[in-house]
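Quick question, first post here. What does this chain look like in 3D?
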Amino acid sequence: MLSAWASAATRCCWRGENDTLERHPELDRSQQEAVRDVFASREKIVGIDGIAGAGKTTTLAVIREGAQARGGLGPMEQVEHLMGVGARHDAGAF
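> Answer (accepted):
Ran it through. Tokens below.
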């Protein structure tokens, strides 16, 4: 079981969340909730907690995919996306 945590006062809405989750029916309920919690947070850092084998890496890969679909994970990736330059990070790194 996974859990994502951030301040409840900093929640927002991100419209791409459902599209991202629809592309990944393999995620279990706790992974889906973690993805929703990360996309709903306005915090710059959100923790994801789970035991070994709970699916943290898989969940992070889905979050990365969703974030990249909306322009990247941070300011440099947004600039790279707009300029058509390749990402600075390898595909397996978050």
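The chain is about 45% helix and 10% strand.
The beta strands are 2-5, 47-50.
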